[in-house]
């Protein structure tokens, strides 16, 4: 991940920074929002999609993934949608993939055999919509209290390890990391000494305490930021895409945890 041709500097970049469209929109549904029967092009989609509350004006990311995260705290779950699209004429939503994770569970997909809620299921190979991005409200509060998902720029392995239950990677190279592999910034690294922008420092502290896991493949190794622009709130992030590149992916700064951690 630091030396492959696609390593792009060998660090974790921030997708969605500096007008990049690769952030993740996040929406919060309530009883005031309309409900939709979301059509998903997968067999046996989660039953919550039969009556999913989505705020008016919600938009998916303006990129090839067209992804979004929907929190419904009253109903107790978060939903990830891929290729999400709203048809204004018929007032219907459709998507190519969806995953539901219950907020009071341990966040694991039921297929891991270790989930505390059998309703945690969907098509994102074990990913959880709550950890697919760094949320702006968490960073503004000064603390992210969970692991984060990162996409690997070098093509990850076709195999997966816990907590993932599948991989969209194609590599058979034994050096390619499997999806699910977990990294953390070494506890010995003095983050305050690196001169990181304030928002990046909050993210780095989470990566030191909780780490990241490889949950996707991408053009570069990247962690998504919440897309506040597409939500209509304007650009609320004040940091460059390379804000974490003071922490290159090397043994000086990072631990790679044993597979299956």
Instruction: Calculate Rg over CA atoms.
Output: 18 Å
Please write the string of helix (H) and strand (E) elements.
EEEEEEEEEEEHEEHEEE
Oligomer: single chain
Mean pLDDT: 96
- Please give the alpha-carbon distance between the first and last residues: 19 Å
Residues in β-strands, percent: 15-25%
Biggest sheet strand order reads: 2-6-7-10-11
Note down, in words, how this protein is organized.
It is built from two helices and 16 strands. It has 261 residues and is mainly beta. The protein has two domains: 1-21 and 133-261, no CATH class; 25-126, no CATH class. The protein has a five-stranded mixed β-sheet, with no helix packed on it. A hairpin with a 4-residue loop joins strand 6 (68-72) and strand 7 (77-82). It starts with 12 loop residues before the first strand and ends in a 5-residue tail after the last strand.
TL;DR?
The chain is mainly beta and about 260 residues long.
